[in-house]
Amino acid sequence: MTINNKQSKITPAFSSENAFKNNNRSIHLRLLAWIPALFVAAAIFWFSSKPAVESTEMSDSVSRLILLIGTKFGFFRGDPTQYADLIELMSFPVRKTAHMTEYLVFYGTVRFGLHFSYRTPMIRRRLFAAFAIVFCYACTDEFHQLFVPGRAGRFTDVMIDCFLVLVVTVICFTPSQTEPVGKI
Fold first, then answer.
1. Is residue 93 part of a domain?
2. Most exposed of 2, 25, 95, 150 (fewest Cβ within 10 Å)?
3. Smallest Cα–Cα separation from 15: which of 31, 36, 29, 1?
């Protein structure tokens, strides 16, 4: 008597193989894959719905924290309370870096959602779709800021928000040396 030692192939419940089986479970998994993107989009909306005074205070508190840490490590000398001009100078880069970072995180979560819901052999289409979704959301976010006291909607802000997203998309579009060209 021989015993068959073959083990059945077990795939994780949240794998791309299971996500595309034609059943109710796959629909639920496809929807679940979009939850992180929805949370990040809601966070972006919440941050941009703050009036200008609150938004400036939030970025100034981050600038104060950076100065405090820099003082502790010896990068700055003196009392951090005397750095009012430096805090004002740091406010713009801190705000824009935060915007670029939150949109880059949003891009990652959108790519995650697309991985499970947009099945295509062409990875570039999924990359472009993710970039297009993030760009359109940035446009709608700037439009939304037109209705927030003290805020303004500017296309230059859309470009700043999407800068890192564009850089990552271009890097992902570039074929690597080890990857066959046909796979992209």
1. yes
2. 2
3. 29
How far does CA 177 lie from the centroid of its chain? 27
Angle at which helix 84-117 crosses helix 35-48, to 10 degrees, equals: 150
Q: Give the integer Cα–Cα distance in Å for 33 and 110.
A: 9
Structure tokens at 47: 């941050």
The pLDDT value given to residue 19: 47
Question: Tokens 């006291």 identify what position?
Answer: 149
The answer to whether residue 6 sits within a structural domain is no
**Structural domain boundaries enclosing 137:** 33-174
pLDDT digits (tens, 9 = 90+) for 44-71: 999 999 998 888 888 888 888 888 888 8
d(C-alpha 106, C-alpha 77), whole Å: 37
**Weakest mean pLDDT among 103-107, 151-155, 179-183:** 179-183
CB atoms within 10 A of CB 6: 6
